[in-house]
Amino acid sequence: MITVEGLTRAYGSFIAVNDISFECKPGTVTGFLGPNGAGKTTTMRVMVGLTPATHGDVRIGGLHYADIPNPGLHVGVLLDASAQHAGRTGREVLELGARTMGLPSSRVDEMLDLVSLDRREAKRRVRNYSLGMRQRLGIAHALLGDPSVLILDEPANGLDPAGIRWMRGLLKGYADQGGTVFLSSHLLHEVEQIADEMILIGNGRIVARGTRDELLLNATGGVHTTLVTALDNQLLGAALTDKGMVFHPAGGGLRVTAEPVDVGRVAAEKQIVLTDLRAGNEGGLEDLFLELTADTQRDVLPNEAPSDEVPA
Amino acid sequence: MSAMTVPATLDVSQTATVPFGRLVRVELRKLADTRAGRWLLIAIAALTLLVLIIQLSVVLGQDLHPKYIDFLQGMNTPMGVLLPVLGVMSVTSEWSQRTAMVTFTLEPSRVRVIAAKFVSILLISVLALIVGVLLGALGNVLYGVFSGNTVVWGSAGKYAVYYLLLYVFGMATGFAFGALFLNSPAGIVIYFVYSFVLPTIFGIAAALMNWFESLQPWIDFNFSQSGLIDATIAGRDWAELAVSGVIWLVIPLAIGVWRIRRAEVK
């Protein structure tokens, strides 16, 4: 539904977005991840025609954004929740959008209900809104025209944990109905639970992409690891060595270089009681994210070994 | 609708472009839906009324013999100062408040948005003219009632046309400066320099240099508009008005629109 081809945006000698290509499919949520300044916002701005591309092409449903008639009815956009007139009421912001799109005022009420802004809050001026309320207002604005594509820049920014969970449900439901969602974030955990596909960007380039599982596998160089704890770890260790599996002690258990199913099979054969067995590269995604985008991180990360602790 | 049946293209065959009239109505609404905008409109009306009251009390107190055009001239002062501010802000507030990002995603044709804004301030000019003409008439009638003198109307229809042009020029010049600078303080300050400081400088230059005196009407838009204010405009004055108007209104507006079309909206 969204096709980005060889997109480059340069500011003089600074290249904000460097030859990126990807696609977002209907019925899916695509997460666009990267640290601040990686080029996420620039990419989204080019998508909706606010910034011209230096090279490359972006099409939404086969069309350039500028060629979509009454685009609010097709593409919901939230680029910056703070980009609203501070002196307008929340309701008026939606009213202007609804009128431009040719929608009745009742649609404004529906959207206010959807994002849980009550009538009293809607009458307040945006100046007095918290970031979370502005974000809800922005999401309401993006959804006004019942679009089939959503482009949201950092939509979870400023939302409280309950708000983030609410938004996750909202976007998931939206994609399940066939909508296309493209959202950015600099926080992995905001995205990994809803995104069907993730695109990691750093320094204006796509550094990795794929489903969560694909990225996880990549994170460990294609090697599966398993975290396992048995009543008798020594016995289990001996059994694993017999099968030629490599392991290291990790916290109260073992980290094994193998898939959980194989470790479980070994334990079953030897009738070893396990208290915990799971895929061991969960933390790998975060490590991957930090590693891939390390060049663009503003903070120097301590060069620590991956955490080996097994939580009790 | 299920994920399986959704095509990866947008079906826009049933969607019409946003009609221009709707864009104009939205832009008109934006002029009055913030506290700043609403108060500016109220201030223009209130100051105009105040000036009329002062003028009426002065002419009655000093036993002067004003005509209808004198009342129109009196009200031109508050209108002439404040309408251009509204013109500036109708463009620049989208930038200072960053709402241009939303406006241009809902209507990607920036030229259409700017045109809708321009039409909205033209409509405000017409509204201002109606208010001005009626208040001026009220002032003239009240003058007749209180003084007992004969009321002089002159060519009221011609005045209405001239004052409409004045209001339109004022607002449009403000609009052009706003589009040129895309910044409220800069637009307003430059407009005031243009409309208050520059005429003085041009006046001094004309007094000192003969050659400049003959040039001034062609390049001083404020000067060439004075024939509209006292309704004495005739013949070559119109040509001077047109030439100076191109310099101070058409060229800045053209550059401003070109700039907005190309600007990266942040």
Structure description:
The complex is a heterodimer of chains A (312) and B (266). Residues 304-312 of chain A have low confidence and may be disordered. In chain A, strands 5-6-7-3-8-9 form a six-stranded mixed beta sheet, sandwiched between helices. A four-stranded antiparallel beta sheet of chain A has the order 11-12-10-13, with helices on one face. Chain A is an alpha/beta fold. Chain A has helices at residues 40-47, 90-101, 105-114, 119-122, 131-143, 161-176, 188-192, 212-219, 233-242, 260-269, 284-292; strands at 2-11, 14-24, 29-33, 55-60, 75-78, 149-152, 180-185, 197-202, 205-210, 226-230, 247-250, 253-256, 274-279. In chain A, helix 6 links the parallel strand 6 (149-152) and strand 7. Chain A has eleven helices and 13 strands. Chain B is mainly α and 266 residues long. Helix content of chain B is 79%, strand content 0%. Chain B has helices spanning 20-32, 35-61, 68-96, 100-106, 110-147, 156-181, 184-208, 210-219, 221-229, 236-262. In chain B, helix 1 (20-32) crosses helix 5 (110-147) and helix 7 packs antiparallel against helix 8. The longest helix of chain B has 38 residues, at 110-147. The radius of gyration of chain B is 22 Å and the shape is globular. Chain B starts with 19 loop residues before the first helix and ends with a helix. The model of chain B has no long low-confidence stretch (mean pLDDT 91). Chains A and B meet through helix 2 of A and helix 1, helix 2 and helix 4 of B.
Q: What is the number of strand segments of chain A?
A: 13
Shape of chain B: globular
DSSP summary, beta strand count of chain B: 0
Radius of gyration of chain A: 23 Å
Largest interface: A-B, 49 and 42 residues
Gap from first CA to last CA of chain B? 36 Å
